[in-house]
Amino acid sequence: MLQYNLPRNLPSADELPDSDETPVDNELQELIPGLLKAIFLILWSERMDWFFGIDMGIYHHPDEPPIVPDAFLSLGVERYYDEELRPSYVLWDENVLPSFVLEVVSPTYRKEYSTKLEEYQALGVLYYVIYSSRRRRKPRLEVHKLVNGKYELQPGNPVWMPEIGLGIGCERGSYSGVTREWLYWYDADGKRYLTPEEQVKESTQRAQEESQRAQQESQRAQQESQRAQQEAQRADRLAERSDRLAQRLRELGIDPDNLT
Fold first, then answer.
1. For residues 53 and 71, is the Cβ–Cβ distance under 8 A?
2. 100 vs 42: CA distance, rounded Å
3. Which of 24, 84, 136, 232 sits between 20 and 30 A of 12, alpha carbons compared?
4. 62-106: pLDDT as tens digits
5. Which of 178, 175, 161, 145 is nearest to 39 (CA)?
6. Model-level pTM?
7. Are 174 and 206 in contact (CB under 8 A)?
8. Residue 243, by phi and psi: left (phi above 0), alpha (psi -120 to 50) or beta?
9. Peptide bond before 158: cis, by omega within 30 degrees of 0?
10. 46-66 pLDDT tens trace
11. Using CA atoms, how far apart are residues 13 and 84, in angstroms rounded to an integer?
12. Among residues 215, 214, 185, which one has the least CA distance to residue 199?
């Protein structure tokens, strides 16, 4: 629970702007958070205790402008208030700090590695993630964890975040018709969670494989039935031949039952 020493009669989320009204200058700032949220909507579809905001203002003081990350995740909050949804994220209403904040570095550098890092550190956000596809010599993905009030860069790709129960990492893939490096969620073993498109393809492929197996089983059953019919017909022919032979022996005065 957050503790605030703030004036009374604070504005509500409905009375505050929902962002800083600064347009994104890179499509990745929309697509990358959108992909992460799309995976969330399937992965945590049964959970109602989380909120993933995209380009939404986080208000931490009524007299200061909001912080507007490209995306953030809060745990232990109501996923939906009502059908109007959240216009912004107001800390003195929510009483829960975001556990995770994401900034996607655009061609217009916005102090993601300096001022914003200090802001999220001062606010107490547990994980601050920065992604820059333009980096060459330094890691494109940085995951900073708040340890004793200071951010510490976490090694690896993906990076497991036990407090959230997810890992985050980057790898090449396809989303929205674009093949490039994307950010994804991962499990504790480093296995990537599928995107909605991949899940549809996997389900379709699984259904096709099940259909093929069913057809193969049906064909085998038909073949077995045909073989059984052929065996029955063969047995009938042998029985008829035996009956004719027995009848012929009787006509010759030979009792077939006495033959050994």
1. yes
2. 19
3. 24
4. 889 999 999 999 999 999 877 878 889 999 999 999 999 999 997
5. 175
6. 0.73
7. no
8. alpha
9. yes
10. 999 999 999 999 999 888 999
11. 12
12. 185
